[in-house]
Amino acid sequence: QPLALLPEIPGLSPGQRREFLVVAVFPTLLFAVNPDSMVWYQLEPRAVDRFTLRISVCVPPASAGDERVAQLRLFVDAVHQQDIVACAGVQS
Questions:
Q1: Residue 39 CB neighbour total at 10 angstroms
Q2: Environment class of residue 80 by beta-carbon count within 10 Å: exposed (0-12), middle (13-18) or buried (19+)?
Q3: 14, 28, 29, 33, 47 from 4: Cα distances, Å
Q4: Omega cis (within 30) before 27
Q5: CB of 5 within 8 A of CB of 65?
Q6: Which of 42, 67, 70, 79 makes a 20 to 30 Å CA pair with 3?
Q7: Distance CA 49, CA 2 (A)
Q8: Are 34 and 50 in contact (CB under 8 A)?
Q9: What's the pTM?
Q10: Cα(31)–Cα(14) distance, rounded to whole angstroms?
Q11: Is 6 helix (H, G, I), strand (E, B) or coil?
Q12: DSSP secondary structure, 9-56, as one string
């Protein structure tokens, strides 16, 4: 069962409510879709050894003012802080 902190997006089928979908659009876009939100990753190359990563949490307008959006952002950040350590190890 996917993590859902916010109310699910209306109109989803039962199968869609159980899905966590990750889509990579090579080479610079990635989307992670949950029943309540989407996280959009935009990678902007800066040099051979550098890039800027923009991470946007997308929620339906009805959830935009929900205080749980901040919790979702913190969760996404925590996951990526762990990933950074793993990626740094691979790069070294």
A1: 20
A2: middle
A3: 14, 26, 23, 11, 36
A4: yes
A5: no
A6: 42
A7: 34
A8: no
A9: 0.79
A10: 21
A11: coil
A12: PTT--HHHHH--EEEEETTTEEEEE-SS-EEEEEEEEEETTEEEEEEE
Place of tokens 């950074």: 84
Q: Which residues share a beta bridge with 65? A: none
Tell me the two tokens of residue 7. 């109310």
Would you mind telling me the total number of residues written for the chain in this entry? 92
Residue 64 token pair: 């935009």
Backbone region of residue 54 per phi and psi (left: phi > 0; alpha: psi in -120 to 50; beta: other values): beta
